[in-house]
Amino acid sequence: MPLDIDFVRAQFPAFSEPSLQGQAFFENAGGSYACGQVIDRLTRFYRQRKVQPYSAYEPSRLGGEEMDEARARLAALMGVETDEVSFGPSTSQNTYVLAQAFGQHLKPGDAVIVTNQDHEANSGPWRRLAERGIEIREWALEPETGHLPLEGLKALLDDRVRLVCFPHCSNIVAEINPVAEIAALAHAAGAVVCVDGVSYAPHGLPNVAALGADIYLFSAYKTYGPHQGIMVIRRALAEALPNQGHYFNAGDLCKRFTPAGPDHAQIAACAGMADYAEALYAHHGGPAGAGPTERAAFVHDLMRAHETALLQPLLDFIGAKNSVRLLGPRQAAGRAPTVAMVLAGRGGEAAARLAAKGIMTSGGSFYGVRCLAAQGVDPDHGALRVSFVHYTAPSEVEKLIAALDEAL
């Protein structure tokens, strides 16, 4: 059964909001619309349960239960244990905390591999470990294609490498990297892997256990939820790394790497992300009796099939423009629907022209300064980036192509 776009869009209040009518949203890589299930839970928490959670009185008890529900249900969808999921204020903040832990754990002379394809959040914090005597090795992308070659990684791996950090897909290049294969190579060399899933998770939550990732990071506000960073840290690694929280929380896995007080309401509202996935599964006739990871895989495939069908005509159109450089693969099957292009003028100028035509997008470097520079693009010049997800309608892509044809 193909994705029922009318049902999908009915789950997002933004599509019935009068102030947004006539606007086509193509900046989803910067943050998605929130689904109604998340908004309802967030509203209920603030109205009924905005108290300190986990006490015996009813509003407190219910608030704590909702926070626990969010963690348990998201963990189940990703195939990991409940306490292997942690929340923090953002993915960038979560990564900085993890880098602090690794900085205390690693020894001078140990090596960490990072890429120049990644968002700065999964590059900069690790590169700063050089100040502690850690060797930083860069797995470089191919300048013409933006591709991360496996041979490049193999050349960097040896018995000194303790950590390999890379994106599931780049927020600029958008090529889907073979996480399971990369993880297997790293593990064989005795290293653990940290995967930046921020640009991939909006297109379907992955089975983190099947991927073999030791750390998987993504953002709830890009996966139809509130502004929280979500991180999976597998148990053996979490227990080996130094505690970054209050000393008396050291024995609680999901508190070891969140030193700041959590946003109770937003964590509780994240259960709405699971509600939404379950609603998609039920509406589209998912098989009865399937487990959480199987249901998540069903929803993932629904989303990807819809997105891929919409993406290929856009890639074909841009690829035929001699005045435009398309960054990343030209085939939709191998990439996320995040499309960065380099124009004669600055990306921000093109975004302004598109805004006048009812297309919401943006231009710039998108915290991928290293990624652009490695491909020969001046980060100050930047790129125009259009990005969509499964709730985008075919008519909106047609509108985008027509607007691009005029603007370019």
UniProtKB/TrEMBL annotation:
Q: Which organism is it from?
A: Caulobacter ginsengisoli
Coiled-coil stretches are none
Q: Which UniProt keywords apply?
A: Lyase, Pyridoxal phosphate
Q: Does the keyword Lyase apply?
A: yes
Question: Record's superkingdom?
Answer: Bacteria
Protein name as annotated:
Selenocysteine lyase/cysteine desulfurase
Q: InterPro entries this protein is in?
A: Aminotrans_V_dom (IPR000192), PyrdxlP-dep_Trfase (IPR015424), PyrdxlP-dep_Trfase_major (IPR015421), PyrdxlP-dep_Trfase_small (IPR015422)
One matching Pfam family is Aminotran_5
